[in-house]
Amino acid sequence: MTNSAPPTQGKTPAGDPGPRKGGPDARPGLYMGRPFGVPVYVSPSWFLVAILVTVMFEGQVNGVIDRPASYLVAFAYAVLLYGSVFVHELSHAVTARVLGLPVRSVTLHILGGETSIEREAATPGREFLIAFAGPLINLVLAGLGLLAHAVLPLPDVALLLIDALTFANLLVGVFNLLPGLPLDGGRLVRAAVWKATGHSRNGAIFAGWVGRAVAIGCLITGAYLATYRTEGGTGGFGWLALLWSALVASFIWVGATQAIRAERFRDRVPLLSARRLARRATLVTPDTPLAEAVRRAHADHAGALVVADHDGNPQGIVSEKAVTATPEHRRPWITVGELSRGLEPQLTLPADLTGEDLLTALRRNPASEYLLTEPDGRVYGVLAVTDVDRAFAGV
């Protein structure tokens, strides 16, 4: 399953026996290669699941082949299982790239996998195609498995592997079609509501609430399987079913909640204004003692210090953290020039920036403060990222 709100990561819980903002260059795991130009990573948590799958599946394999070969076959199943998840995620990524969307990475991890797409699809039709590509490939693989079982004369070990993989792909495909975010089925619901109403927000909110309902349903199902007993007193999947269902339910609930919060975030984006969020700045020369600069800022009712030359040309911004970290008794002996950050061109922004344009500028050049200027070059003020964050507080 894939989500694609910038920057977004879509997640795909794997099938039986097991069903985000870092920097864009952060590596989520071990780098494995770039099939179709998409970077692929394997999280260290995958190895934990591989061991668990091997131990659980080995009991079935041991009925067909003796140990220690049974462990090798069981481990091969774990690898092939995640191979199915990988193909699922890669199908999302390739479809997105064909439709012109940049794909950041594919990552395999403890819950299955995730595809990180840089931005959202422009139309509900494209959203549908990207979301459906993953489950479709799993259902096709399940169908091929059934066909192989029916027509190929296979040895018992190969037959066991094919049957297990067929079931796993069927489960992954069907599970991801459940109609709630962050699952692929939720993306399909979102696309349908988007198409019907003309607003992607409506689809995301609706699919997010359905996702919360799906999470509760998963938890209830896990509790039932954990306690179910046949008439003979046997059966029940025990604590493992309850633990795994709780893990999957929490994953779905968090993903659905994030989708709802993201839409509320977007509602506030058009209201953003660099001018409204800016702090008044006091201009001081580099040799000004910090104590004197702070006194001037208080007198000006300013919330920021900008270092300028004697002609008033800005040269740097004094970090708020640096000021607060400097003890009062040292401030008369430290100049603002010692605490300032050089004013690189990318840290100067037009004061008229608003909405998505403002967020894009902040994402392009991450920093804690930015200098805002008027069209004629005059200093308007300083924009602190903490103030932008506060604008979204309570989302």
Overall description:
Helices cover 53% and strands 14% of the residues. The relative contact order is 0.09. Strand 4 (103-109) and strand 5 (112-117) form a beta hairpin. The protein has 395 residues and is of the alpha/beta class. It has a 5-stranded mixed β-sheet. The protein has a 4-stranded mixed β-sheet with strand order 6-7-8-9. A 3-stranded mixed β-sheet has the order 10-11-12.
Order of helices and strands: EEEHHEEHHHHHHEHEEHHEEHEEH
Overall mean pLDDT stands at: 84
Spatial strand arrangement across the major sheet: 1-5-4-3-2
Morphology: elongated
Helical fraction: 40-55%
Radius of gyration: 27 Å
Distance between the first and last residues' Cα? 25 Å
Strand content: 5-15%
- The total of helices stands at 13
The largest sheet is: 5 strands, mixed
Structural class: alpha/beta
Q: What's the total number of strands?
A: 12
Low-confidence stretches: 1-25
List the helices and strands and how they pair.
Layout: E1 8-13, E2 30-33, E3 40-42, H1 45-62, H2 69-98, E4 103-109, E5 112-117, H3 124-151, H4 156-176, H5 184-197, H6 200-227, H7 238-268, H8 274-277, E6 281-284, H9 290-299, E7 304-308, E8 314-318, H10 320-325, H11 336-339, E9 340-342, E10 348-350, H12 355-364, E11 369-373, E12 379-384, H13 385-391
Parallel strand pairs: 3-4, 6-7, 10-11
Antiparallel strand pairs: 1-5, 2-3, 4-5, 7-8, 8-9, 11-12
Helix pairs in contact: 1-2, 2-3, 2-4, 3-4, 3-5, 5-6, 6-7
